[in-house]
Amino acid sequence: MVNREINRLTALFKEVDKNKRLTAKGLIEEASFMKVTLHELKEMIDESGPIDEMPQGEYSILREHPALKSYNTMVQRYTNIINQLTNLHPKEEIKKEVNQKIIKIGMPSAMQMFFEVALFTGAIWLCGMIGTTSQAANQIALSLASLTFMFAMGLSVTAMIRISNQKGLNDYKKLVIVAKSIFLLALIIEIIFGLFFIVFHNYLPPLS
Questions:
Q1: At 157, phi and psi to the nearest 5?
Q2: The pLDDT of residue 13 is above 80
Q3: How many CB atoms lie within 10 A of CB 175?
Q4: 137 or 174: whose pLDDT is higher?
Q5: Mean pLDDT of all residues belonging to the chain
Q6: What's the rounded mean pLDDT across residues 121-146?
Q7: Helix, strand or coil for residue 208?
Q8: What is the value of pTM for the model shown?
Q9: What proportions of the chain, in percent to the nearest 5, are helix, strand and coil?
Q10: What DSSP string describes 82-137?
């Protein structure tokens, strides 16, 4: 059983650097022995139970089974050796092409958020230069717009999840339907909010 475990671990860690293979070989042998020993100890514990009765003259006392104590100690050592073996394994590096692909996907959203924050900040700065009244009016409009914007933002997250799901299924026909439906839903909701602002434009500013 030990040799079988050695062969299994050797196959798992065959990509270890040549300079570290001697170290890996020793760790693999130790880990294999411990794995088999842990299996034997576990069988003893399952058979006798975790509590052992030890005679003491006319009476007996209950104590932790010696196999259980050895098992707990060896589990910790086995875990440490496996961690050392894992650290010897070469780390997978993200390729340049993958980084470029991630940047291409994320750049449009990043630029959209950048310009959005920049424009809102610029508007506040300009209103501050004009006067306190203009700045207060801008703050009210910004508060109301932020409220309605959260609905569109939530729908955009929903669209991202559902479209990604259809992309993974290669169902492009349904992908287009999902995209158009969520876009239409966001448009309808924002139109309703716009009409609400127009109708109650005299009542909303004091509430803000």
A1: -65, -40
A2: no
A3: 17
A4: 174
A5: 81
A6: 78
A7: coil
A8: 0.43
A9: 80, 5, 15
A10: HHHHHHHSPPPPPPHHHHHHHHHHHHHHHHHHHHHHHHHHHHHHHHHHH-HHHHHH
Give the pLDDT confidence score for residue 33 in this predicted structure: 86
**Assigned token pair, 83:** 């961690």
Closest CA to 23 of 73, 79, 86, 93: 86
Nearest to 60 by CA among 52, 72, 50, 68: 52
User: Confidence band (pLDDT; 50, 70, 90) for 208?
Assistant: low
C-alpha 138/C-alpha 142 separation (Å) is: 6
From CA 22, how far away is CA 189, in angstroms rounded?
A: 66
Structure confidence at residue 90 (pLDDT): 67
Q: Which two tokens stand for residue 11?
A: 């196959």
- Given a cut of 80, whether residue 42 has pLDDT beyond it is yes
d(CA 70, CA 84): 21
Q: Is 95 exposed, middle or buried (0-12, 13-18, 19+ CB in 10 A)?
A: exposed
Whether 180 contacts 115, CB under 8 Å: no
